[in-house]
């Protein structure tokens, strides 16, 4: 009996696409040139079917989410990324904020007794929030709630912190890890290729620096995520270059958990004249990333940025994770124009969203240990829960 991938292989007439489909069926890695063929010639249906084949081979219908919240210590930032709608030069009453350690601990305490497993801490690069400040924060969070997984600091924040403290990456990472830092989020990667990086975020850590920081974390046994800010001025070649660098590091360390493509949103920033990607292109990108990044276990659609309805759609294009409950604790995407102006979903809403597209909702912790399988959990008013935008 033919499987659906056999039917796909026999139905496609283009030889290059046919050979890529055969590789996917055989579990063979595709090359950069083949990835370009997918971007240039692969229809949404074709790349979607291949990505879905891989997703189901790896995870079946399992779709992960977690219960988390964010803390954004500040939006004051010494850098000036052109796509950023969030950063400010100073803290002032209207627009800039800078939280004290006590204020951040108070946020953590609002979740006392609630079944949250992760806090995600990222923000701007404040010239006065240094290594000691964040070591104290890590220690105090862990003293208050030892079981809470602390996923914190982009490589951009870490690079600045370590350089200011005159520490090597290895020394700095070890100090933060000892203080309670459990893993790294994937932010700050943007587009690695200098042709683009120099135009959109010239003054922050470059590709090699970003990769070296993640490699160091992996050496200490920590896991991390990787992102790519796509859909602006980059070309397909730049996306492939970005993913190749990640795939190479992952071959070496196996420390990445998840790849998270971040869709450029164009509201109120220095790149507002650049149109946003279409949803079709978003889905093609997710699918192609799933096909190319054969050594990444997970592919995440971050719903506060993509919108919950599109995140739901992405579950048919290779995605097997939609991040977490968030609890309206991040402003990065609402300020950049996302339709999710107060990003917050209850567990019931997330579960319903996943079930509506006939997938299996599984709560995970940050490291993808299963917390609870929600397949058979029925919420009283499930039909009314997923408020699609
Ligand atoms: O590095 C900033 C992006 C990132 C815009 O690891 C923008 O689990 C689109 O990395 N349009 C920070 N994107 C957020 C981040 C992240 C988010 C969720 C989960 C994880 C994880 C990591 O946000 C920045 C930048 O690439 N960003 N401005 C914008 N206008
Ligand atoms: Fe600063 Fe991050 Fe915004 Fe760049 S993206 S300006 S590093 S807050």
Q: Which structural class should the secondary elements be placed in? A: alpha/beta
Mean pLDDT: 94
**Percent helix among the residues?**
40-55%
Q: Between the first and last Cα atoms, what is the distance in angstroms? A: 41 Å
**How large is the share of residues in beta strands?**
5-15%
Helix-strand pattern: HHHHEEHEHEHHEHHEHEHEHHEHEE
- State the shape: globular
Strand order of the largest sheet: 9-1-10-11
**Integer-rounded radius of gyration:** 20 Å
Give a topology summary:
Layout: H1 4-11, H2 15-26, H3 32-41, H4 44-59, E1 62-66, E2 68-71, H5 101-109, E3 118-121, H6 131-144, E4 149-152, H7 155-164, H8 169-179, E5 183-184, H9 194-200, H10 207-219, E6 223-230, H11 236-253, E7 256-263, H12 279-292, E8 298-299, H13 303-306, H14 308-314, E9 321-324, H15 347-356, E10 360-364, E11 370-373
Parallel strand pairs: 1-9, 1-10, 2-3, 3-4, 5-6, 6-7, 7-8
Antiparallel strand pairs: 10-11
Helix pairs in contact: 1-2, 3-11, 3-12, 4-12, 5-6, 6-8, 7-8, 7-10, 8-10, 10-11
Bound molecules: ligand V47 and iron/sulfur cluster (SF4).
Ligand V47 binds at residues 83-85, 122, 154, 185-188, 190, 225, 227, 229, 260, 262, 264-265, 269, 302, 305, 323, 332, 336.
What does this structure look like?
- The chain has a domain at 65-220 and 303-309 and 319-388.
- Helix content is 42%, strand content 13%.
- The chain contains 15 helices and eleven strands.
- The strands form three sheets. It has a four-stranded mixed beta sheet, covered by helices on one side.
- The mean pLDDT is 94.
- It binds ligand V47 and iron/sulfur cluster.
């Amino acid at each position: 009996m033919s499987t659906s991938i056999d039917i796909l292989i026999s139905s496609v007439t283009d030889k290059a696409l046919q050979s890529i489909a055969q590789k996917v069926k055989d579990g063979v890695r595709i090359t950069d040139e083949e990835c370009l063929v997918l971007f240039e010639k692969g229809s949404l249906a074709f790349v979607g079917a291949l990505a879905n084949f891989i997703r189901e081979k790896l995870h079946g219908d399992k779709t992960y989410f977690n219960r988390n919240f964010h803390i954004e210590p500040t939006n004051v930032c010494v850098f000036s990324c052109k796509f950023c709608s969030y950063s400010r030069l100073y803290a002032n009453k209207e627009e800039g904020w800078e939280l004290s350690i006590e204020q951040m601990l108070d946020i953590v305490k609002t979740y006392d007794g609630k079944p949250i497993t992760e806090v995600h801490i990222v923000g701007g690069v404040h010239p006065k929030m240094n290594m000691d400040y964040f070591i104290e924060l890590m220690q105090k969070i862990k003293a208050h709630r030892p079981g809470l997984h602390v996923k914190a600091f982009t490589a951009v924040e870490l690079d600045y912190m370590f350089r200011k403290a005159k520490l090597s990456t290895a020394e700095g990472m070890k100090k933060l890890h000892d203080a309670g830092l459990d893993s790294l989020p994937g932010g700050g990667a943007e587009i690695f290729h200098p042709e683009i990086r120099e135009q959109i975020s010239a003054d922050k850590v470059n590709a090699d620096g970003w990769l070296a920081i993640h490699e160091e974390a992996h050496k200490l046994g920590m896991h991390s995520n990787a992102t790519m800010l796509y859909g602006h001025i980059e070309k397909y070649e730049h996306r492939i270059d970005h993913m190749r660098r990640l795939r190479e590091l992952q071959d070496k360390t196996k420390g990445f958990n998840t790849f998270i493509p971040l869709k450029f949103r164009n509201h109120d920033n220095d790149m507002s004249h650049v149109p946003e990607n279409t949803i079709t292109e978003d889905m093609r990108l997710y699918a192609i990333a799933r096909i190319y990044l054969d050594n990444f276990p997970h592919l995440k659609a971050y719903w506060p940025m993509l919108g919950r309805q599109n995140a739901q759609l992405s579950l048919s294009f290779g995605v097997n994770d939609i991040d977490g409950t968030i609890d309206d604790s991040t402003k990065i995407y609402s300020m950049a124009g996302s339709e999710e102006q107060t990003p917050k979903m209850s567990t019931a809403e997330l579960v319903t969203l996943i079930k509506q597209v006939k997938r299996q909702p599984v709560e995970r912790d940050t490291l993808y240990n299963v917390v609870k399988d929600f397949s058979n959990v029925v919420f009283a008013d499930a039909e009314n829960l997923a408020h699609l935008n």
